[in-house]
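Long-time lurker, first post. I've been practising inverse folding by hand and with some scripts of my own, and I keep getting stuck on stretches where the structure tokens seem ambiguous. Below is the full token string for one chain I'm working on. Before anyone asks, I'm not after the true native sequence, just a reasonable design that respects the backbone. If someone could post their per-position residues I'd love to compare against what I wrote down in my notebook.
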């Protein structure tokens, strides 16, 4: 992997630069106050403008400002007219377009394709402030506002739609977003390097159509285009199929057995003798890397993958195998008579670069124009600190690894501690509690492959599945040190961990679990087993339920030692590809056996380019070699089945009983319908009174309360409920433990 130029190599020290804008301007009046007659770059976003590094437009805006450019923001413009896109005038260099921190379709629609009633990234959570497929709409309007100005699309919506992709909301394979948006350039993944480079080159007068060599960028080219004559094409436009098996020649034969069959060989000129070159291992590896650097992999065309699910799965597998920036090759995919060209993924930021990005002079507040409006996304993160990015988990339903990469990029300890002090000193209404030190996960901070050479050559889709790689460092000592120093800062009363915990990693460090449980859990801790059944977990690339059991044992042990009543909040996914009705039933039985009453549950939503989405659409498993005869993945697609799977997760809710009864009878499991302890649901809706009773299950959560409610009461020092003691004659031993379920190993 080549060492890139530092992002801030040519940036003057802060003391030598002019003062930063209090907020990046959103109006002409703000531009005038700053002494600007125009903006060099105008960023368009589907989110409210919150000047905080957790919001992409603020981060790249401040980064470009530090490079010396004048940056304006157009937030949540009315897309029904072109005039809002002219509010700041014509940008001197380019438009930067994003849908926001979320894909606009995921933001606007539920897993059942129903429009959401609120939007966490909008003032007062008001819905419908962004269009469907916002990147496409914003790019088109920007082009209309000032024709001829380059348009660059980025962030997660553009990143996950950079090639032909299955779109759940239209139930079809759509073209690359480059075609619909008409953007000149698409920047995928973490955009800092490419964005700074392209901005410098445009400022120097280079034409955006000629910028074709930046990592992390995608663009349209004529079909068959190559950067130069040294490039070669690796064709991966078809799956492997059995071919003709030729008879092996007899090595002792003095003459060809079939001269006619080898006429071309006989007519060939005498081979030219070539000297044997002896190369060292390092030289051979360097030659392979150089060849890969000049090789592009041709994926099956849009026309092919849009009509052939098997080829779609094959393309998905090839795409994901080319995701490590250390060895990934460029990709190209035909769309009619043009190609979408994707350069290799961006190189990760170094720790000093991460520090500089997060140390920029953010206002750390919503733009003043919002007044006292309630913005849920801001309120959720205002007292939290992002300590890293990336995830090497590779969960098939998640877009973090696809977008941010699987190489962890961490900030330094001093940078993180400075931000905590900044929150303490400048954030309004701060009461002494940091709500999170995390990122995509809570406990991957500064974890990495033990050998950089191995990391750069690895093609594993996950470092922790099916088992934790022996080359992965799992030492949590640096994170433990950070926790201890953070909570020792004067004025900091409590530091909670709100990011999802990778528990299979955590159990490798009991000292970390003890530190976490003793000091950083506020009554409840989020954890995501996602399922209990091995078949489904294998399609998620998640660890078996045994890892959860081991973590729970440590969690309970250290909670008891600390004298705290604390709970794990497990998250599960319904209707994930590979999950059958029987799998969901077994999960429901596991939940009841462990006395879990889930309040928040989610149904699988196929997001663009995710491997689980490939399974949903194609019925094939891209985690293994894809052929016509390869594994078929059973998937719940009908609304009725998806509703049943979700109902199983909330088996205790009377509203779900009719659906579950019908499902159990269809499955031949009517034996689980009844009013006894061994039954999953009552025989009639009259049993609803059971749920409203507040009886305590010995050692468990009171009936009638979800575990979230109990944990919140515990955090406030209140009992879970008024204890209930049943008359001795009515106490019956539970026989749920005798119900046979599928093996979870």
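-- Answer (accepted) --
I ran through it position by position. Result:
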């Amino acid at each position: 992997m080549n060492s890139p130029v530092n992002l801030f190599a040519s940036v003057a020290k802060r003391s030598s630069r002019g003062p930063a804008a209090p907020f990046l301007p959103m109006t002409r009046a703000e531009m005038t106050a700053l002494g600007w007659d125009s903006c060099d770059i105008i960023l368009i976003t589907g989110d409210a403008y919150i000047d905080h590094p957790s919001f992409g437009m603020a981060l790249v805006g401040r980064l470009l400002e530090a490079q010396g450019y004048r940056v304006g923001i157009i937030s949540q413009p009315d897309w029904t007219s072109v005039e809002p896109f002219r509010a700041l005038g014509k940008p001197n260099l380019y438009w930067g377009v994003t849908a926001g921190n979320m894909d606009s379709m995921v933001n606007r629609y539920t897993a059942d394709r129903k429009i959401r009633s609120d939007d966490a990234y909008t003032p007062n959570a008001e819905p419908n402030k962004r269009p469907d497929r916002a990147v496409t709409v914003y790019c088109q309007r920007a082009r209309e506002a000032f024709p001829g100005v380059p348009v660059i699309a980025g962030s997660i919506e553009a990143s996950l739609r950079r090639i032909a992709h299955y779109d759940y909301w239209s139930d079809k394979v759509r073209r690359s977003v480059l075609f619909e948006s008409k953007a000149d350039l698409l920047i995928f993944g973490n955009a800092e390097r490419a964005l700074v480079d392209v901005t410098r080159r445009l400022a120097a007068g280079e034409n955006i159509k000629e910028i074709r060599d930046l990592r992390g960028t995608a663009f349209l080219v004529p079909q068959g285009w190559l950067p130069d004559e040294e490039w070669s094409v690796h064709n991966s436009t078809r799956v492997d199929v059995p071919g003709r098996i030729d008879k092996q020649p007899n090595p002792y034969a003095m003459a060809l057995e079939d001269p006619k069959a080898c006429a071309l060989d006989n007519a060939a000129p005498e081979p030219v003798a070539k000297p044997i070159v002896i190369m060292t291992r390092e030289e051979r590896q360097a030659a392979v890397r150089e060849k890969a650097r000049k090789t592009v992999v041709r994926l099956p065309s849009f026309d092919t993958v849009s009509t052939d699910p098997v080829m779609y799965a094959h393309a998905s597998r090839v795409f994901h195998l080319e995701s490590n920036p250390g060895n990934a090759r460029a990709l190209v995919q035909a769309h009619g008579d043009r190609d979408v060209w994707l350069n290799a993924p961006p190189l990760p930021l170094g720790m000093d670069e991460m520090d500089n990005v997060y140390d920029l002079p953010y206002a750390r507040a919503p733009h003043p124009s919002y007044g006292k409006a309630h913005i849920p996304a801001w309120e959720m993160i205002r007292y939290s600190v992002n300590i890293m990015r990336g995830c090497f988990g590779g969960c098939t339903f998640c877009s973090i690894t696809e977008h941010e990469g699987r190489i962890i990029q961490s900030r330094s300890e001093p940078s993180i501690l400075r931000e905590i002090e900044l929150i303490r000193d400048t954030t309004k209404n701060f009461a002494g509690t940091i709500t999170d030190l995390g990122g995509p996960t809570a406990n991957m901070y500064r974890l990495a492959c033990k050998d950089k050479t191995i990391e750069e050559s690895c093609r594993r889709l996950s470092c922790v599945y099916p088992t934790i790689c022996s080359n992965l460092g799992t030492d949590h000592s640096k994170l433990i040190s950070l926790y201890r120093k953070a909570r020792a800062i004067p004025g900091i009363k409590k530091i909670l961990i709100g990011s999802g915990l990778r528990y299979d990693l955590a159990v490798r460090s009991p000292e970390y679990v003890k530190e976490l449980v003793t000091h950083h859990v506020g009554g409840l801790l989020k954890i995501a087993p996602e399922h209990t059944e091995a078949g489904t977990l294998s399609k998620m690339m998640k660890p078996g339920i045994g890892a959860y059991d081991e973590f729970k044992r440590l969690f309970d042990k250290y909670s008891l030692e600390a004298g705290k009543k604390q709970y794990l909040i497990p998250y599960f996914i319904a209707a994930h590809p590979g999950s059958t009705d029987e799998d969901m039933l077994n999960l429901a039985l596991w939940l009841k056996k462990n006395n879990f009453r889930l309040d928040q549950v989610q149904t699988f939503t196929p997001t663009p380019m995710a491997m689980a989405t490939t399974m949903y659409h194609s019925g094939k498993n891209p985690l293994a070699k894809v052929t016509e005869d390869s594994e078929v993945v059973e998937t719940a697609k009908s609304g009725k089945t998806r509703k049943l799977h979700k109902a199983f997760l909330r088996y205790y809710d009377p509203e779900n009983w009719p659906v579950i009864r019908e499902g159990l009878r269809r499955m031949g499991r009517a034996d689980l319908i009844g009013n006894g302890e061994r039954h999953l649901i009552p025989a009639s809706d009259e049993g609803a009174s059971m749920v409203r009773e507040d009886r305590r299950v010995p050692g468990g959560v009171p009936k009638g309360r979800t575990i979230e409610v109990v944990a919140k009461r515990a955090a406030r020092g209140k009992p879970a409920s008024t204890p209930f003691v049943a008359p001795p004659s009515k106490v019956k031993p539970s026989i749920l433990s005798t119900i046979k379920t599928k093996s979870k190993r």
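A couple of notes from the structure itself: DSSP finds 27 helices and 23 strands in the chain. The first helix runs from residue 28 to 33. Happy to go over any region you disagree with.
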